[in-house]
Amino acid sequence: NVKHNIMDLIFKKPEEVVALLCERLRKERLYLEMTQADVAARAGIGVNTVSNLEAGRNVSFENLVRVAMVLGRLKELEELFKPHLNSVDDMLRYESNTARQRIKRK
Hints:
This protein is mainly α. Helices cover 57% and strands 0% of the residues. The protein contains 6 helices and no strands. Helix 2 (36-43) crosses helix 3 (47-55). The longest helix has 18 residues, at 14-31. 12% of the residues are buried.
């Protein structure tokens, strides 16, 4: 399982995705020759938070963003919930729907 791509994330349980991403995070940190303390100091978070993130324990979304920034992976994170807009109609609908706070139940 050396080669992982986006298809690896399809049809998996959430905990499997978490484990995969945590492993990638740890490998990326080691590849950059950074200790957990290095990442924590640069991200402005505690070493325990970095350790928890690599172990798949819950940390805040903001702390995940901070670590991604330190590891130079913010661009990938910014793509996470990017809208899939294929037409002018899609763009107009997307823009008009962002003003709505809740989706109405049918």
